[in-house]
Design goal:
This protein has helices at about 5-10, 25-35, 45-55. The protein is mainly α. It has three helices and no strands. About 40% of the residues lie in helices and about 0% in strands. Helix 1 (about 5-10) crosses helix 2 (about 25-35).
Length: about 70
């Protein structure tokens, strides 16, 4: 499930250090939420934030059943 910009912002360190190339963490979070940036640009992101954002950005997986179920 995709996260909103504010949900991503809450996971970031909120230091506004500009190491990512954006003036604020909120601006960076909005780009992350839109899929236009990579979390790799934030060197201060915690392991927990990386795990949460990685799981949220994974595509949904749906089970697909093949065959009729009778016989080999």
């Amino acid at each position: 499930m995709a996260l909103t910009g504010l949900q991503v912002f809450k996971l970031l360190p909120n230091t506004n250090c500009r190491k990512c190339g954006y003036p604020t963490c909120l601006a960076f979070a909005m780009k992350l939420a839109a899929g236009r940036e990579s979390l790799d640009k934030c060197p201060d992101a915690s392991a927990e934030a990386r795990a949460a954002l990685g799981a949220a950005s994974a595509p949904p997986i749906r089970t697909v059943k093949l065959g009729s179920g009778s016989g080999p």
